[in-house]
Specification:
2 strands, alpha+beta
Length: 86
């Protein structure tokens, strides 16, 4: 069984956002640490109201943007260099 549940690493422990109903105690898990890529919108002159408006206007693109095929753009320069090299 493979299942993904978000969580937070805090004080040496992983706290899950939800408890899975179908998983017993002491089940082996793998933990992948993700870097936080938060952007300070206020530093760019975007307040909460403006951010909400932008989110609403861009929501039509969410399904496309969240697609697996878009992962290449997470590190576009490195992917482009690999394509050009090979």
């Amino acid at each position: 069984m493979l299942r993904t549940i978000e969580g937070v690493y805090r004080e040496g422990k992983v706290e899950l956002a939800e408890r899975p109903d179908d998983v017993g105690e002491e089940v082996p898990v793998l933990v992948t640490f993700l870097e936080s890529h938060r952007i300070d919108l206020r530093a760019h002159g975007i307040d909460e109201a403006h951010a909400a408006e932008l989110r609403a206007r861009l929501s039509t693109f969410a399904a496309d943007w969240d697609g697996v095929e878009m992962d290449v753009y997470d590190d576009y320069d490195a992917a482009r260099a690999r394509l050009q090299a090979g």
